[in-house]
Amino acid sequence: MSVSTDGHTVKRYDQQLGDLRSLVLEMGGLVEDQIQRAVQALQDEDLGTAREVIARDHVVNGFDVRADEEVVNLLALRQPVGSDLRLILSMAKTVTDLERIGDEAQKIARMVTHIFDGSSAPNQKLLRDVAGMAKLAANMLHGALDALARMDVDRAIEIACGDEELDTEFQSALRRLVTFMMEDPRTIGHAIDVLFMIKALERIGDHAKNIAEYVVYLVKGKDVRHVSIESLSAAGKG
Amino acid sequence: MSVSTDGHTVKRYDQQLGDLRSLVLEMGGLVEDQIQRAVQALQDEDLGTAREVIARDHVVNGFDVRADEEVVNLLALRQPVGSDLRLILSMAKTVTDLERIGDEAQKIARMVTHIFDGSSAPNQKLLRDVAGMAKLAANMLHGALDALARMDVDRAIEIACGDEELDTEFQSALRRLVTFMMEDPRTIGHAIDVLFMIKALERIGDHAKNIAEYVVYLVKGKDVRHVSIESLSAAGKG
């Protein structure tokens, strides 16, 4: 709550906090859509959609700048302490991660334009892991945003722990790509494009994990960013 | 300056601000050292140093947590406005980027242990671009930290604009790696390790650029994160 005891001020402050939260969640929705479209563009060999995703990154960046301004305004005008201060700082960090997720979605879209722009279409075998990893990464982001919207620390911990599954998938997909390249060196060019796509998806998982960790910090007041999964699970029970 | 007019409070506040700055710059020095050692370990085929870099990432993470606590304390206790608020928020963002640069240095060290752990040493040709890119990335980070220490906006703009050179180097190095892989598919495994190293160096450049942009924001009050290089150069003159 605001330190002010003036009812009117408190109400406006709560509204401003709510507006910031809405802005962050709206940005999250946009970024989710960017990932989904970039991966759909790959599946449909749809260069038009891929170019739209690339062009729309500036809208994501616009949210970033607006949210940052809101954060500065709230801190300067309302001078929050305690849990409100933590909430605002967590929102600021979430925005940074969402902006970087937007960059990764844009990279995937760029790889789509690259992979279908050449003379030959890529071997479908190369693409087989992308959809599965994209689903895992998108689910992580959706879950992290859901945990943020509901301040649900158990869900947040579940999401943060889920990052290991995505990392394992990434390592398996990478091994398969290397095998394809060795078996048929003509696939190397396309395989490198796919490698950058799955790397982008793995990073989206890292950012979703960050967002989930901010939720734990918010609710528990514990900074769990650099602790092991075991300690993280323990934090949920603490 | 603090909003307080009490001389003693102002002095302690300035000291706390100075302490935060020192902490951030010390963390920057540590991270610079991590990059330098990781790349040295590659050149010297020195697995021991690589493992030290990996182990020392927890020290970088410790700085991250401490700096974040300092930021929360300063905001809660001192309730800064205007340029002081911007300074503190820029320091918080810088810390996030430094922590991620630390992660990238750790990744390079992991690749060093991976590339020299197999039965055969990598072809030296594969490594030829790493040292040059590492120098560019390290120079960018050093320049960004220097610009931050001196609040030198011209230097910061120079650094931010320098990221294009690193990106171009990355693209050239990537093309050469693909060529090597195609000419000699036995090099694919090692080439992928090198690919992840140069990708990490390219990302270090991105983070250094971010830090340089916070300096511009701090001094000019302009958010230049999502503007073109032309506008960025114009901001320096503005």
UniProtKB/TrEMBL annotation, chains A, B:
<dbReference type="GO" id="GO:0030643">
    <property type="term" value="P:intracellular phosphate ion homeostasis"/>
</dbReference>
<comment type="similarity">
    <text>Belongs to the PhoU family.</text>
</comment>
<dbReference type="GO" id="GO:0045936">
    <property type="term" value="P:negative regulation of phosphate metabolic process"/>
</dbReference>
<dbReference type="InterPro" id="IPR028366">
    <property type="entry name" value="PhoU"/>
</dbReference>
<dbReference type="GO" id="GO:0006817">
    <property type="term" value="P:phosphate ion transport"/>
</dbReference>
<dbReference type="GO" id="GO:0005737">
    <property type="term" value="C:cytoplasm"/>
</dbReference>
<feature type="domain" description="PhoU">
    <location>
        <begin position="132"/>
        <end position="215"/>
    </location>
</feature>
<keyword id="KW-0592">Phosphate transport</keyword>
<feature type="domain" description="PhoU">
    <location>
        <begin position="24"/>
        <end position="111"/>
    </location>
</feature>
<dbReference type="Pfam" id="PF01895">
    <property type="entry name" value="PhoU"/>
</dbReference>
<dbReference type="InterPro" id="IPR026022">
    <property type="entry name" value="PhoU_dom"/>
</dbReference>
<comment type="function">
    <text>Plays a role in the regulation of phosphate uptake.</text>
</comment>
<protein>
    <recommendedName>
        <fullName>Phosphate-specific transport system accessory protein PhoU</fullName>
    </recommendedName>
</protein>
<keyword id="KW-0813">Transport</keyword>
<comment type="subunit">
    <text>Homodimer.</text>
</comment>
<keyword id="KW-0963">Cytoplasm</keyword>
<dbReference type="InterPro" id="IPR038078">
    <property type="entry name" value="PhoU-like_sf"/>
</dbReference>
